[in-house]
């Protein structure tokens, strides 16, 4: 995690670094900092909290060389001291990643006389750079990274040379090119409006950047050529369009996300079907919300194509020594395409001979580079940490993937059905009034989301969303499992939100409602099944439009997302940037 940016050239390094950090803030916002070379001296400015806290410190600072960092804490609490950059002597460094062997390195450096001030793993890099420095910062960085275990994207500057030295391994890093100026950053949006051409560095690469030149080196420190590509980022600082939060704005963009994803799918369908022909088993994987979308994918492929499928969180999958071969397809789902566990899971699958399909909203990422086929999610930039329109876009892509595998006629029917769904989602968004249910949830000691089959997948997402942005505890649970344990938690202070969109299973889920009511728990129902609303007319009920059962998750999803949003608003939470989280989780 963390976002980093560097600038060198004839322009204003302070403005560029600060602006880049604002665009990178989705990667972490525990603290922010920057180091600039001014009059031959390195000066470091850092502050706990949001990037904007850094702004007053930079008043009057002038420089043409600088590096910056916005942090998601891994080692050491969020504080001014633990904020990056870290420095040793005349060298400053910013780091995104985790140094797994930092404790041993730190002990050795201390025994050599180094003085540490922070609790971070990253500070060892500054001291190693100083120790290895012999007149060439890039060479010192090469010697330093040889000693590191873990993941890193690094940028270093020093008082002795006008250059930025960078290196990457398992954390993203790109270079950008300007006229008499050059850039480096964690991702393309950070260089939006600054650099039209970029280079994505490969694992093990280093680079030496001056105002006039960029030299790239491979892991053996041999000069390397890397492709230069257009910067595809669109303005990530998009406005709020009159909404109080990005989450609400992005939630309202759900119909567009589904529509654009279905349109984009047509462009990859043939390639996908040919890559997946002969596949006898599917494994779906992802983390968090993407994992919840993956659960729908598993269900779709089993139902539509009758091919066995599994679904596992990427963090579990990558360490279980999975049984994979050429007849298996691994479908890796990720909004960012940069989630460390998902990228590693996909890499492992590829190394074991499986076909890898990426379902992602980021069309140039670590995940897309690994995949045999990329199925685009066309949700557009998602700024709020809580995923909304990307989740529904992922479900749409997975629905069409499974339909395409099931055959041409089946696909055509499904394409027709999904083309009508954006209008249903719009109708859902317009009709939903979550105010009173949001107040009930906000004042509950626990909120349990219950459902069966696809409704269970949405229940998991509803619970995650509510926890993530409102901090109200709870669980997503299969309605049938309630009586096997979680029922013990139900009392008058709890609320259970029961999702029922499957006519066949409706009665079964209704049993769960009765069980909760008879223990004094509060219940709300989200449904589009005739009869359910009538039966529980005295309960708070959210009615969704009628819809094909396989597409109902798209409607139920916006309902639970809106509920979470409203409950978080009732509690006055900082909705777009919930505590302890970051948009892109690039560490383990
Ligand atoms: C979503 O609301 C969460 N912030 C989180 O679970 C997220 O979905 C997860 O970290 C995976 O991210 P990815 O889709 O970018 O891989």
Description:
- The protein has 588 residues and is an alpha/beta fold.
- Helices cover 36% and strands 23% of the residues.
- The chain has 18 helices and 24 strands.
- The strands form 4 sheets. An 8-stranded antiparallel sheet has the order 3-2-4-1-10-9-11-14, with helices on one face.
- Helix 3 crosses helix 4 and helix 6 packs parallel to helix 11.
- The mean pLDDT is 95.
- The chain binds 2-deoxy-2-amino glucitol-6-phosphate.
- 2-deoxy-2-amino glucitol-6-phosphate (AGP) binds next to helix 7.
End-to-end Cα distance, whole Å, is 9 Å
SS-derived structural category? alpha/beta
| Unique bound compounds | 2-deoxy-2-amino glucitol-6-phosphate
If strands are numbered along the chain, what order do they take across the biggest sheet? Answer: 3-2-4-1-10-9-11-14
Number of helices: 18
Extended strand count: 24
- The amount of helix comes to 25-40%
Shape, per Cα inertia axes: globular
Rg result: 25 Å
Estimated share of beta-strand residues? 15-25%
Largest sheet: 8 strands, antiparallel
Provide mean pLDDT, rounded.
Answer: 95
- Low-pLDDT parts are none
What's this model, at a glance?
With 588 residues, the chain is an alpha/beta fold. 36% of the residues lie in helices and 23% in strands. α6 (254-276) runs parallel beside α11 (389-406), α6 (254-276) packs antiparallel against α13 and α7 (288-305) runs parallel beside α11.
């Amino acid at each position: 995690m963390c976002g980093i940016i560097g600038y060198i050239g004839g322009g204003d390094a302070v403005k560029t670094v600060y602006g880049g950090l604002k665009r990178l803030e989705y990667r972490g916002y525990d603290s922010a900092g920057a180091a600039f070379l001014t009059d031959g001296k390195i000066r470091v400015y850092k502050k706990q909290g949001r990037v904007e806290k850094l702004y007053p410190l930079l008043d009057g600072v002038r420089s043409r060389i600088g590096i910056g960092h916005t942090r998601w804490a891994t080692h050491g609490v969020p504080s001014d001291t633990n904020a990056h950059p870290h420095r040793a002597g005349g060298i400053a460094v910013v780091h995104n990643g985790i140094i797994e062997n930092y404790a041993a390195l730190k002990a050795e450096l201390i025994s050599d006389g180094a003085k540490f001030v922070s609790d971070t793993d990253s500070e060892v890099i500054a001291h190693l750079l100083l120790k290895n420095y012999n007149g060439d910062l890039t060479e010192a960085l090469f010697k330093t990274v040889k000693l590191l275990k873990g993941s890193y994207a690094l940028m270093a500057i020093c008082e002795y040379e006008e250059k930025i030295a960078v290196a990457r391994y398992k954390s993203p890093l790109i270079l950008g090119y300007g006229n008499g100026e050059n850039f480096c950053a964690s991702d393309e949006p950070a260089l939006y409006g600054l650099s039209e051409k970029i280079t994505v560095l490969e694992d093990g690469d280093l680079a030496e950047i001056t105002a006039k030149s960029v030299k790239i080196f491979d892991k053996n420190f041999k000069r390397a050529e890397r492709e230069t590509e257009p910067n595809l980022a669109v303005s990530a600082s998009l406005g709020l369009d009159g909404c109080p939060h990005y989450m609400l704005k992005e939630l309202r963009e759900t119909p567009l996300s589904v529509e654009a994803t279905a349109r984009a799918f047509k462009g990859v369908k043939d390639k996908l079907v040919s890559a997946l022909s002969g596949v006898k088993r599917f494994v779906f994987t992802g983390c968090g919300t993407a994992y919840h979308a993956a659960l729908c994918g598993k269900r779709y492929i089993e139902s539509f194509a009758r091919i066995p499928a599994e679904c596992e969180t990427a963090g579990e999958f990558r360490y279980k020594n999975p049984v994979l071969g050429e007849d298996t397809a691994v479908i890796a789902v990720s909004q960012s395409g940069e989630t460390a566990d998902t990228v590693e899971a996909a890499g492992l699958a590829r190394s074991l001979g499986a076909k890898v399909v990426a379902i992602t909203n980021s069309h140039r990422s670590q995940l897309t580079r690994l995949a045999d086929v990329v199925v685009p999610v066309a949700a557009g930039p998602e700024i709020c940490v809580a995923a909304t329109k990307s989740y529904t876009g992922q479900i749409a892509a997975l629905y069409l993937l499974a339909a395409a595998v099931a055959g041409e006629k089946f696909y055509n029917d499904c394409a027709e059905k999904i083309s009508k769904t954006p209008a249903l989602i719009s109708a859902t968004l317009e009709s939903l009034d979550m105010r009173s249910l949001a107040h009930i949830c906000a004042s509950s000691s626990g909120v349990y989301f219950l459902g069966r089959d696809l409704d269970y997948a949405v229940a998991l997402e509803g619970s995650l969303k509510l926890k993530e942005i409102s901090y109200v505890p709870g669980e997503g649970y299969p309605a049938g499992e309630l009586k096997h344990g979680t029922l013990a938690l139900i009392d008058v202070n709890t609320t259970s939100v029961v999702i029922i969109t499957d006519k066949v299973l409706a009665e079964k889920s209704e049993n769960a409602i009765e069980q909760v009511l008879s223990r004094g728990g509060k219940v709300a129902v989200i449904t589009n099944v005739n009869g359910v609303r009538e039966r529980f007319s005295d309960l708070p009920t959210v009615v969704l439009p009628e819809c094909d059962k396989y597409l109902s998750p798209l409607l139920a999803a916006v309902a639970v997302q809106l509920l979470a949003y409203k409950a978080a608003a009732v509690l006055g939470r900082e909705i777009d940037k919930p505590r302890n989280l970051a948009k892109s989780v690039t560490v383990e």
